[in-house]
Write a structure and sequence with these properties.
Length: 412
C-alpha cells in the first residue's frame, strides 16, 4: 500500500462510501452514535462498538472489540481475544454483519517517500514485512529473521543519514548502548550489523505497539490503575538503566575512566512499547538513540540539535536548558509526564498551534492535573503535580525512579 489508504464500504445495510486516510487515524465501526461508520440501529448482527481499524499509512490493522457475532477477514473470523490487531493487506475484505469494508491503496505501486523499503526487501539476514515507523535517523521495519523465522523490530539507518558522520556515530552509539542492557522492561537487543552502507539494529518486536497508539485507539484516558501499572513498569526499567554500568564502556582518556551509567533522555509515549495481553501488558522502554552516560556529561558530541522533535512536551525545562548535562531526574519527570498524559489525554503544558514549543516549555507552567480531570485520588494528583513542578531540580531533591515508584504505590 502507498502513503494513503482507502476503506471502501459496501454491503446490504449501509450506502457505498469511500474513506481516504493520509495520516494516522482510528476508525470505529458499530451501531453506537459516536462510531465513525455507523450501522443501522436495528441490525443486531453488528454490535454497538463492533471493530476498530487502526490506520497508519501504509499500514492498516483491524481489532474486534468483543463483538457478539464476530469480525471476518476474507471469510475467516478473527479472535476477539487477540493481544494485537490483525494485520491487513491491500485487497483484504473485512465483514461484520451486513457491512463489508475493503482495504485498498490510494496509489497502486506507489512507494512512501524518504527511502522506505517494500515488503520482501532483504536487509542482512532479515526480510522486511512492513514499516513500523520512522524518524530523522532511521526507519523501523517489522522483519522476519530468515534463518529462525522469528519477527524482530529492525531499525535501518536512512540512506541520507548514512553520509553524515554525526548520524552514523549516533546510530553506532545506540547499538553499543542497547547491546549492554538486559532487563524485563527494556527492549531486548538481538544483533546489529551492516550491508555496505546500510547499518541495522535488530531488537525484540513488541506486538502491542506503542503506548501512544494504545491510548489514542480508545475513547478516553486510561483508568488510574492501568496508567499507574504502566508507569511502575517504566520506572522499574529506568531504575535499572540509571544504575547500569556497561561492561565495555566506550571512549578514551578521561571518558573511558568514568562509569557508564545511563540516562535515556527521550521517555515519551512513542518510546514505551507494549506486548502480551491488552488488559495487563508487559511494558518495554525502547529507542536508546539519545541515551547518554550521565557521569560523562559534556564529554561526547551529543547536543540538542535535531533531538527535540515531538519530544519537548515530555521534557522538563531543566533538560532543555542544560541538554548535554541531563541526569536521571529528567527521565523521572518524563515518566510522570507520560502518566499525566495517560490519565488526561493532554500534555502537562498546553502547546498552541504556531507557537515555538521550546519557548512554551521555557515560559509556561505545568497545568495542575485536576484542572484536566477530577477523577483522581487527591494524593496521586498532589504527587504528580509535585514531580512536574519541574523548574530547577537543584532547588529541591528530585526523587529517583525507585522513590517515585514507592510513592505511586502509597498514593493508590
Amino acid at each position: 500500500m502507498g502513503e494513503a489508504v482507502r476503506l471502501e464500504v459496501a454491503g446490504t445495510i449501509v450506502p457505498a462510501r469511500t474513506f481516504v486516510f493520509s495520516g494516522p487515524a482510528a476508525f470505529v465501526v458499530g451501531r453506537a452514535e459516536n462510531c465513525d461508520l455507523r450501522a443501522p440501529g436495528d441490525d443486531r448482527r453488528v454490535s454497538r462498538r463492533h471493530c476498530a481499524f487502526d490506520i497508519d499509512p501504509p499500514t492498516v490493522r483491524v481489532r474486534d472489540l468483543g463483538s457478539r457475532n464476530g469480525t471476518y477477514v476474507n471469510g475467516v473470523r478473527i479472535p476477539s481475544s487477540a493481544s494485537r490487531p490483525y494485520e491487513l493487506a491491500d485487497g483484504d475484505e473485512v465483514r461484520l454483519g451486513g457491512v463489508v469494508v475493503r482495504v485498498s491503496s490510494a496509489g497502486p505501486g506507489h512507494r512512501p517517500a524518504g527511502g522506505a523499503r517494500p515488503a520482501g526487501d532483504r536487509i542482512g539476514g532479515y526480510v522486511s514485512v512492513r514499516e513500523l515507523g520512522r524518524g530523522a535517523q532511521g526507519v523501523v521495519h517489522l522483519a522476519r529473521h530468515e534463518r529462525s523465522g522469528e519477527l524482530f523490530a529492525l531499525k535501518v539507518l536512512r540512506p541520507e543519514a548514512a553520509i553524515r558522520p554525526d548520524m552514523v556515530n549516533g546510530f553506532l552509539r545506540e547499538i553499543r548502548t542497547t547491546r549492554t542492557l538486559s532487563h524485563p522492561h527494556l527492549v531486548r537487543f538481538h544483533e546489529a550489523g551492516s550491508t555496505g552502507t546500510r547499518f541495522f539494529l535488530a531488537c525484540e518486536y513488541c506486538d502491542g505497539g506503542s503506548l501512544a497508539r494504545r491510548v489514542t485507539e480508545q475513547d478516553g484516558p486510561l483508568g488510574v490503575e492501568e496508567a499507574v501499572a504502566v508507569t511502575l513498569q517504566v520506572l522499574d526499567g529506568l531504575a535499572y538503566l540509571h544504575g547500569h554500568r556497561a561492561a565495555d564502556a566506550a571512549g578514551t582518556g578521561t571518558e573511558a575512566t568514568l562509569p557508564d551509567r545511563l540516562v535515556h533522555r527521550d521517555i515519551k509515549p512513542q518510546n514505551i512499547l507494549l506486548s502480551g495481553p491488552c488488559a495487563s501488558p508487559l511494558v518495554k522502554i525502547a529507542d536508546f538513540g539519545l541515551a547518554k552516560a550521565f557521569e560523562r556529561a559534556g564529554l561526547s558530541g551529543h547536543t540538542l540539535t535535531g533531538a527535540l522533535g515531538g519530544s519537548v512536551a515530555f521534557m522538563p525545562r531543566s533538560q532543555i536548558v542544560n541538554y548535554k548535562y541531563a541526569e536521571p531526574p529528567v527521565d523521572v519527570w518524563a515518566a510522570a509526564a507520560c502518566l499525566y498524559w495517560m490519565l488526561t489525554r493532554a500534555t502537562p503544558r498546553d502547546f498552541p498551534d504556531g507557537v515555538d514549543p521550546v519557548s512554551v516549555a521555557l515560559r509556561e507552567p505545568v497545568v495542575p492535573i485536576l484542572r484536566r480531570t477530577g477523577a483522581l485520588p487527591a494524593r496521586l494528583a498532589t504527587l504528580i503535580d509535585g514531580i512536574l513542578a519541574d523548574e530547577d531540580p537543584r532547588a529541591h531533591v528530585a526523587p529517583s525512579a525507585q522513590e517515585l515508584g514507592r510513592a505511586l504505590r502509597e498514593a493508590m
